[in-house]
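[09:14] KT: can someone run the structure on this one? pasting the chain below
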Amino acid sequence: MARLSVLSVMLAAALAPVAAAETDREPVRWHDCPSIPGIPMEKLRCATVTVPMNYADPGGRHISIEISRRQADNPAQRRGVMLLNPGGPGGPALPMPLQFEQLPGAEAVLGSYDLVAFDPRGVGLSTPVTCRLRPDQRNGSVSPYPRDEADIDRYAQRAREVAQQCGKDSDRDLLPHITTANTARDMDRIRVALGVPRISYYGASYGSYLGAVYASLFPQRTDRVVLDAVLGPQGLDVDGVRRFGQGVQDRFPDFAAWAAKRHSTYQLGATPQAVTVKFYALAARLDREPIGKVDGAAFRASLFNALYNDRSFPGLAESWRLLDNGKEPPRDNEPPGGGYPDMENRAAAQLHVLCNDSDWPEDIGHYRRAVRLERLLRPMFGPAAANAHPCAFWPVDPVEPPVAITSRGPSNILLVQNLRDPATPLRGAQLMRAALGQRAGLLTVDAGGHGVLNQAEGTCARDIVLRFMTGDQPPRDGHCPSPGGGVHEKVKAEVDALVDSGEATAALVRTRDSNGQWAAAAGVRDLTTRLPADARGKFRIASTTKAFTATVVLQLVDENRIALDAPVERYLPGLVPDGARITVRQVLNHTSGLHDFASEPGYEAWNYPALQRSHTPAELLAVAFAHPPTNPPGAKWDYSNTNYVLAGQLIERLTGRPWAAEVQRRLLRPLGMRDTTLPGTSKTIPRPHAHGYMRVPPTEGARPELIDVTSINPSVVGSAGEIISTTEDLTRFFDALLGGRLLSRDTLTQMRTTVATHPGAPRWRDGLGVFSSELSCGLKVWGHDGGALGFQTFTARSDDGRQLVLSVNPYDDLVPDAPIKRIQEAYFCR
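[09:31] RB: done, C-alpha cells below
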C-alpha cells in the first residue's frame, strides 16, 4: 500500500513585516535551470536570490533562494509577476510555471504574467535542511492511527526520536528560522529583486496559508491573490492537522459511491453503505492481523492519500479487493535519495515549518484526550490526525508568534475550495474567509479532492479563477455545482435553452443556498461584437425597484413615522385626488385604484425615442391624476406604477431627503451593494453589461427593425423602476429583506400579507412590494419581477433560504412565462 505521502498542504505563523528597501535590489543573474527528468526545464530560466537567515538580524548570515521564471507570452501587455507555491510545506516548486501551460483556458494568464516559482527556504535547490530521516520516519504531517492508548505512547516515543534527530542533525543556526513568516518575507525579497512594486500570487494547500501570511504582512504589495484548497488562519498548527479527520469523513462518501457502482469489478459492496461497512471491517481485521507490511494504520493512511484525487480510486479499490482476499497489494517505490526532489529534505522541511510556526502542546495527555474524542466523532482517520506529533518535542521554541491574518488591505483575495477536501476541509476555508473579511471572496465547488485548479473535471471554478487573475473585479463569494451534474446543470441547461430559442440575446442567473452561491451566463453582450455575456453584468431591474421603495416605507413604519392604514392625505396633503380614502397600504399593494401613467396609449413612444428626456415625479403623477380612478380604493388589485412614484414622494416628504438618497443610506451601503446604482436621469449602464434590444413593428413593405434601447432615461419610472443592479447584489438584498434583517418581525409579516391579483393567476399574490407565487411542485417563493425595454428581472426566494435571481434581455417586450417557470422549477422543485 502507498506510504502516507508528504502532504502538499501546510503552514502557520509570523510577526511584523521586515521589508527590503527597494534600493537594496541586486541585479538578477539568470542561468539555465537544473535538469529534472521528464520535465522540460529548458523552457524556464533560473536565478538565485540571497535573503537574511534571520530577519531580526538582516546584516547577519544570508541563505539562498532558487527561483524559476516563465516570461509572459505578450510582453507588451504584461500585467506583472505572479509568484507560485504548490504547498507542502516542503514542496519543491521550480517546475510549477510549466503547469499553467497544461491548464485549459490559461492563455490570458500566460500572456499577462511572468510566472515565477521558488523553492522555499530549507527546500530543494534553496538552502536545504535535513533531519537525516529514514524512510519510515518521513510521514511528518500525520502520525500513525493508534489502536489504543498504548499505541499513543509508542508513537509518542517515535515522535520524540524524530524531533531529537532533527535537533542533532539539522543546521542549528538555521533550524528556528524555517518558518512561514520568513518564507513570506523571502517572497518580498524576490519581488524587490525582480523590480516590481506588487506581485500576484497563486498558492495551493499549505501555499494558501503562505499567501494569506504574505498578504497580511505586505497588503499593499499584492495585486491578484488566489488561495486554493484553503487552510484556516492558523495554518497547520495542532488544530489544523486535526482537521484531516473531518476531511476524510467529508470525502469518503465520494469513494463509497464510486466503488458501489463498480461492485461487479471490486466486490466491495453494492451500496455506499456496504462499502463503508467494508472499510471498517478491513481496518479492524488489519489492526488484529496485518497482511505483509499492511497494518490498520497503513491501510487508513493509504485511504487518506487516495482521497486527494478521483484518479486514485481504481488503485485504492483494487488494493482493498486484494486485502479482502488475504493478499498484500504491491507497494509504491519511494524515489531514490538525492536529486530533485529529495524526499528526506521534503519531510525535514515540512517538520521545520510545522514545528516552528506554532507552539504545540507538550503534554501527552492532550493527545490521549484528543484521540479518544476523535474515535467518537471522526473514527475513519481522526485518531491519526490527533495523535502525538514530533512538534510536541521540538528542540526549539518558536522565535515569534504566528502572523495575524486580518482584513486590513485591498479587496483582492479569492479563496477557492472544494466542499469535500480530505486535507483542507471546508471549515478551514470558512475560517480564513472570516479572518480576511472584506478583502476576500470564497468560491466553493461541489466537488471532492484536494485542490480546485488541478482537478480535470469541470470548468466553472477554473474559468472564474482565471478571469479573476487577469481582471480587476473585487472577489465575490460564489458556488460552482458538481462537474458531473446536479441542480445547477439543470438550471444552466434551461437558461441556455431560453437564449437558444431566440427569445433573448442574453441571460444571467445566480442561485444561493447553504452551499454558497453559483452564477452563470448565456448569450452575448451585444449583437455587434458577439462577446459572451458576463455573469457579473449589470442590468436595469425595472419594477424590482419597487421592493426597495416599499422596504424604505416600511422602515418608516417601524420608526413610527408613518402608519400603513393611514390615508396618504395625512402625509401628502392636497396632492392625491381622493387621498383621504387611499391608505398607504393600498398604495403599496396596488389596490389604490390610481391610474397607471405607464398604461397611456402609445407608452412605447414615451420610451423610445421620447424616453431620452428627463421626467419629474410631478409630471408622471400629473399624467396619472388626469384620469379617473380605475376602481374605488381597496376594491380590487390593479397594478400601477403611479403607486410607487407616490411612495417615493412619501419617503421624501417624511425624511426630508431624496428617495434615492434614502435607499442608498438605508439599504445599499449597509448591505455592501457596491454594484447597485440609482441613475436618476443618467442614460448609461455601468460596465460590464449586456445590451437591450427592441423589435420595431415593420411599416408596409419593410422588415422589422431591431434597435438598441440600452440607453434610456430612467426618470420615466423613478422610484417605481429606475435601479440598476447585479444578480449578486439582488441576492444579497432579498436575502436580507426576506430573512428578517431589514424590518421588524411584525412589519415583515405585514409585507407578506397578500391580496389576490389576476383572476386567472390564483397562485400569484401581491404583498407590500413583494409577490408570492406557488410553483407546480407546491413550493411558495417570494420576490418581485421587473420589465423594461430590453431588460427583464425575476427574483425568487423560498422560506428555507434558497434564492434564484435571473436577468434576461428579451428580443421583444417580454419573454414567455413558460421558460422562466422551467428555470425556477429546475432549481426549487428538486
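[09:33] KT: thanks! The radius of gyration is 31 Å.
[09:34] RB: yep, looked fine to me
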